[in-house]
Please model this.
Amino acid sequence: MSHPKREIDVFPQADALLASYAEREGVDEHALEVAREVFYGYLDRALKHTKIFQSKSGVEFPYTSVSLRELAEEIFVSNRGMRLSSEPQPEQKRAVKKEFLMTGFPTTSEVGGPFEFSEMPLHNLTALLPQALEDLKWGREVKDYTVYTLGYPTNEFGKIPPASLETFRERPLSVTREMYAEFIEQEVARTGTAAEDMQISLTGISTGSSVAAETGCKLLNDNAVTQTDEDKPHLAVTMYAPAGVSNLNTSPLRGAQVAGGFVGEGAQQALQNPRVQMIGKLQPGFFAAVRERLANRMPVQMDAEQKSAKRSGLMALAGALLKGAPVPENVKVTRIVGLDDSLVYSQERADEVAARSKEQKLQSGTWGPLQGRALPRENENERTFAINMPHLIPFYRESELSRIDGVVQAVANLKNQAK
Model:
């Protein structure tokens, strides 16, 4: 079967995943080709849908989005050897899920843009693709799922107008949550789906966790979503490896611990983790290719005025995120905390999880994946689970790579039926 030509032939996070997948026993060239088709298919869709959102305040940020259906249809057509029917499908009630990824590490360069932490969208889409391909094969409606990655206005594609700079410097987290909430509300309205059939998921990673919680608070205050049984889009907020959350780390030296953790773990991963090393080597070429690909419709905005504004805005935003803020009381969140995360490490937490896990093992005879790792709730709106990981989310672990096998098998089924 012919496969679509890719416009960019380097994708650091995907290439690192492919390198890890290639080392698994039983993985052959065909399986690697399928995995590459999926990952680079995501990149093509992400490049196509990379855009700039201009908020009411004039502040701009880059973002991208990828639809499960679009990606599944491309894979289906290229491997099944037949086009999908263009006949209109009968109207039917459908649930819609939109996930908005808010990343950490805002900078004034490429990092903190629409391709940051691409492992997370790949993680989610890889899990959903086998069922999506099966649904297309039998003419069923594919799950309506779209994942967005939101960049920061300090990113090289973003913009902080002079008229907005002082406000951004004074209230960086508030301005960020307001523009993100404005964007999400616009995307929800554009969908045209009954409110009760829509789920909005905010996923924050690292310092982006605080942004996700604050954005959720703004959406709730705007009555745009609900976390109860109202007839509105339902909101879920998940915080992965949260850093800068003051009621998670109550140390008076919290800011220093977070900053030191970033430096220490970053250096350790760069020296000891071959996948992190690989991503670092590939990133310059990738970002150069992205700039070239997007130059005609959204060039970088890094003249002298914007460089100065973004450096100033970045210092304010990074300072607010490192200083930390409690999770807003009106927002229900789920937090995934690494027991070995040096940014929020707590010996008391580690001892408590060990004791709870041991108790569960004695009672049930098994080590439950999360039950025994659930920490006591500080309030009814917060659930916290502690797992064995550092600050860097372990996207290259065996259980993660095994998800790719499901996609490989689904594509093999398509090809076998096409013969």
In short: The chain has twelve helices and nine strands.
